[in-house]
Write a structure and sequence with these properties.
By secondary structure, the protein is mostly helical. The protein has a domain at about 30-105. The protein has helices at about 10-25, 30-65, 75-105. It is elongated and about 70 Å long. About 0% of the residues are buried. Residues about 25-30 have low confidence and may be disordered. Keywords: Membrane, Transmembrane, Transmembrane helix.
Amino acid sequence: MSSMNKLTLDDVLYHSEIFYNYFLGKVLIVPLGMRVVLHLLNLIVILWTVYVRHIIIEMKNLIVGQTGLEVNNFERMKRLSKFNAHHRKLLFTVLILVVLNSALLDATMIDF
C-alpha cells in the first residue's frame, strides 16, 4: 500500500471538523448565488401555496352549493371532507418545505 492511500490522523481530524461544523451549522460557507437561489425558492413555494389555497377555496365553494347542481347533503359533506383532507396535506407539505428551506438558509449563515 502506498503512502498516498493511507489515512492520517490529520485527515480524520480535518474531515470530522468539517462534519462537526456542517452539522451544527457554524461555519458552512455557501456562495452568494446559492443563497439567492434558496431565498427565491422559499418565495416561490410561499406564492405557490397562496395560489393553490385560492384555487382550493374556490373549489370548496363550488362543492358547498354554488354550482346549481342538486347534490344531497350527505354527498356534499363527503366531498367537502375529502377536499379538507387534501387541503391539510397540501398545507402541511408546503410548511415542511418552507421550514426545511429556512433551516438550510440558517445553516449557510457564517458565524464568526
